[in-house]
Amino acid sequence: MNATTPSTLAGAAAPMTRAASLKSKEADATKSGRVMIADDEPINIKLIQKYLRSSGYHDFVTTSESREVVDLVRSTRPDILVLDVVMPHVTGLEILETIRNTPDQSHLPVLIVTASTDEQTKIDALELGATDFLHKPVKPTELLPRVRNSLVLKAHHDQMAAYSKRLEAEVAQRTADLAQSREEVIHVLACAAEYRDQETGNHVIRVGRFAGIIARELGCSESDSELIEHAAILHDAGKIGIADSILLKPDKLSQDEFAMMKRHCEFGEKILKAQPSDESEPFLLHSRRPVTRSPVLRMASVIAKTHHERWDGTGYPEQLAGEEIPIVGRITAVADVFDALSSKRCYKDALPLDQCIEIMRKERGKHFDPKVLDAFLSRLDEVTQIVVSLADQ
Question: I want to staple 351 with a disulfide (CB 3.0 to 4.6 A). Which of 94, 250, 265, 355 is the partner?
């Protein structure tokens, strides 16, 4: 048999001492909890208060009127409720059921106290969500540990709820930051194309806003309308792939030059789908191709490809007609043409609003989907505000 040295005994005792110390601190922390006592007999309230005060509790809310209990719980926010069962007007079990069905009170510890010895009363109380159950006359040796344990659990729950709330706030903030970053990247890419075309970044923002207005008027959900608004900003991203000699040419383009200019629709689709150019294809045969998964970029690729299609089938690049043209392409076509007419360009002055509208009305059913154009024209007040607030300097 091995001998036990004093040092071994001390080492074994140390963890127990730390655990006891931690438990003591935890118990002391619960003494600041607010205890609510509801009993139709004031003498019972005083007795319970006496036991709790002797153990260090000092914050009490009391009532002998059962009809006040639920309102007092709501207004005073106790950390535990010691509740009698048999009371006039409203029973303790009815109060318990109301509390458990109230979301911001459902986790309140409720200690049921009753003189009844009926087993069914105890079963009913526990099924309704009672934290614990005590018989009258209450004994301090039973009351104090139950109150303490209930308050410890309540404190743990409150800490977890606070942590969860902080976590939700952090996730919401990071989500907002990511959304902001996404919007900034979209604007930067769109402005890169417009910068090469010697236009301002406000052009793409205006087109996006107009597209969002049309989408809402057509009955799209707010989330879909916002998606269309962001995606439409990238409608001319393919201009990045057009040579300066064509893109910046002040004179009328030749037939071949215009054919190349029209390819900005194809280039825009490839860029926004993260597809390689024909020239880079051999270098990517053995590599993993990137795939566009972002909803806004997928939609933007459709818009880039189809925003120059015409309702009557005379547009480009694929001469789609009518509803063969994706709705987002039809929406952006109206937004883009209106902004082109109403804005100053290197080759033209801005046209008056009335003249822009007259030109677009003449293209109803030819260039533009009639329903989409009508949706745009029905929101001219909002359109005018955007024209003024986002005017080029």
Answer: 355
| Confidence band of 179 (pLDDT split at 50, 70, 90) | confident
Confidence of residue 241 (pLDDT cuts 50, 70, 90): confident
The alpha carbons of the chain give a radius of gyration, in whole angstroms, of 36
Residue 348 β-bridge partners? 345
Chain Cα centroid distance, residue 86: 46
Residue 282 corresponds to which tokens in the numbers above? Answer: 């051999």
Is the pLDDT reported for residue 279 higher than 70? no
Q: Which residue has the tokens 């903030």?
A: 173
**pLDDT value of position 344:** 78
Residue of 296, 41, 105 lying closest to 187 (CA atoms): 296
pLDDT of 230 strictly over 80: yes
**44 phi and psi angles, rounded to 5 deg:** -70, -35
* Average pLDDT, integer, range 152-167: 87
The highest-confidence range among 121-125, 157-161, 291-295, 377-381, by mean pLDDT, is 377-381
Quote the CA–CA distance of 336 and 341 in Å, as a whole number: 9
What's the whole-number mean pLDDT along residues 246-254?
83
Residue 355 has a pLDDT of 95
Taking the model in full, what pTM does it have? 0.57
Residue 124 tokens, joined = 């009913």
Instruction: Name the token pair of 100.
Output: 């458990």
